[in-house]
Amino acid sequence: MARLVKRTATGPYKVDVSAETKFICGCGLSKSQPFCDGTHNKTARTEDAGKLYWYDTQGNRQECADQYPGITTA
Fold first, then answer.
1. Which residues contact 70 (CB under 8 A, 6 or more apart)?
2. What is the C-alpha separation between 47 and 52, in angstroms, rounded?
3. Alpha-carbon gap, residue 62 to 29, rounded angstroms
């Protein structure tokens, strides 16, 4: 099932595992999921706050509606 996820993070989530620090992807675009690969540097800084975007497989940004009547949120 396809999902539309509204990202509110502007960067990765820092996680300390034992003596090692890892960063979990917060933008959803990392090619090394679930870990951050720095892709957010190309996207988060150029997105407008309050707008909803989706990215195609080539990484091209598309703006979309933020309200979908009849669709529930969790």
1. none
2. 9
3. 14
Render pLDDT for 30-63 as a digit per residue (tens, 0 to 9). 889 899 998 888 777 777 777 788 777 777 888 8
Beta strands in 18-68 (DSSP E): 20-24, 52-55, 61-64
d(CA 72, CA 64): 17
Return the higher-pLDDT residue of 72 and 57.
57
Q: Spell out the residues 6+ positions from residue 29 whose beta carbon is closer than 8 angstroms to its own.
A: 39, 40, 43, 55, 59
Domains of the chain by residue range: 13-63
Query: What pTM did the predictor assign?
Result: 0.60
Instruction: Identify the bridge partners of residue 52 per DSSP, sorted by sequence position.
Output: 64
Which H/E stretch holds residue 41?
helix 40-43
